[in-house]
């Protein structure tokens, strides 16, 4: 997956050049010898239009990445996955969130904060799913208040399918010692409760 992400960054750099470069020129050096911030060349074009196009492209690509992450977990070829896989996805997702936050600086004149929120929002479904899988109490998804606050972009049917595939690495480790007298992993117990309730709701 990381290799595909590298292609993404190359794609974004190309978009930035194609959409911005024709209307961008460097400002001269200041009297103190420090470069002055670059400005858009507005001659003959409307820079706001092209800034909007870039913003639209970035949001669309980030939303596509979020969708692909969800699809990865849902894919029929993925029979099981563990906490290590979720941690890996979380690391990649944080990279994209940092990228989205950094790219918002391109939109100072058209609403930097709203651009940041829009780009971060494009990743929110994947972020909420990863947070749920990493939670020690995944059954909190069943709580209407918590679900609305923390998991409001997740479809319970998708959560049901994905949750059944999730196996914590501690399960296989402790299973080698047998189950007699063993105390069940609290997270596994919470996950089992979530799966059972979602089955009943389906």
Describe the structure.
This protein is mostly helical and 202 residues long. It has one domain. The chain has helices at residues 2-20, 47-74, 83-103, 112-122, 124-134, 144-150, 156-165, 169-175, 186-201, and strands at 24-25, 39-40. Strands 1-2 form a two-stranded antiparallel ribbon. The two termini are 31 Å apart.
Comma- or semicolon-separated keywords:
mainly alpha, elongated, 202 residues, two-stranded antiparallel sheet, 9 helices, 2% strand
Short note summarizing the structure:
The chain is mainly α. It is about 65% helix and about 0% strand. The protein has one domain (about 1-25, about 35-170, about 180-200).
Topology summary:
Layout: H1 2-20, E1 24-25, E2 39-40, H2 47-74, H3 83-103, H4 112-122, H5 124-134, H6 144-150, H7 156-165, H8 169-175, H9 186-201
Antiparallel strand pairs: 1-2
Helix pairs in contact: 1-2, 2-4, 2-5, 3-5, 7-9
How would you sum up the major sheet? Answer: 2 strands, antiparallel
Question: From N to C, what is the helix and strand string?
Answer: HEEHHHHHHHH
User: What's the number of structural domains?
Assistant: 1
Low-confidence stretches: 16-44, 172-177
